[in-house]
């Protein structure tokens, strides 16, 4: 649903918890040492290499999340307002045309 009818994501507790856990586990795959229990449990190959590279990936995940949220807040709300105004204008024009036919 679009902006006026949509609640903030934190009001949906299961969704918020799931997103939080996904973020924590995805980051844990990158930050924890390669022989951790998480990699063994999910049978994930470790990302060997420089530790700095792992933190860059974690930073990318965080930046992507922030940009996605910001774009939705700024762009979607703005586009929804434009579409609502256009729809109201078209509806008013249609109503005015019908009223003229009745006169």
Give an overview of the whole structure.
Helices cover 75% and strands 0% of the residues. The chain contains 3 helices and no strands. The mean pLDDT is 80. It has helices at residues 13-31, 37-42, 51-102. The chain is mainly α. It has a domain at 3-73.
Separation of termini? Answer: 39 Å
Average pLDDT value? 80
Tell me the total number of β-strands. Answer: 0
Element-level helix/strand string: HHH
Assembly of the depicted chains: single chain
The coarse overall form would be elongated
Q: Count the helices. How many?
A: 3
Gyration radius (Cα, Å) is 24 Å
Low-pLDDT runs: none
Helical proportion?
over 70%
Beta-strand content: under 5%
User: Which structural class fits the helix and strand makeup?
Assistant: mainly alpha
Summarize the structure.
By secondary structure, this protein is mainly α. The model has no long low-confidence stretch (mean pLDDT 80).
List the helices and strands and how they pair.
Layout: H1 13-31, H2 37-42, H3 51-102
Helix pairs in contact: 1-3
Question: Which key terms come to mind for this protein?
Answer:
3 helices; mainly alpha; 103 residues
């Amino acid at each position: 649903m679009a902006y006026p009818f949509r609640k903030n994501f934190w009001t949906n507790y299961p969704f918020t918890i799931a997103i939080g856990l996904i973020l924590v586990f995805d980051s844990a795959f990158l930050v924890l040492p390669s022989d951790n229990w998480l990699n063994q449990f999910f049978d994930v190959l470790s990302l060997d290499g420089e530790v700095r590279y792992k933190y860059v990936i974690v930073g990318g995940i965080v930046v992507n999340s922030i940009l996605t949220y910001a774009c939705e807040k700024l762009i979607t709300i703005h586009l929804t307002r434009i579409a609502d105004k256009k729809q109201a204008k078209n509806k008013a024009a249609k109503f005015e045309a019908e009223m003229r036919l009745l006169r």
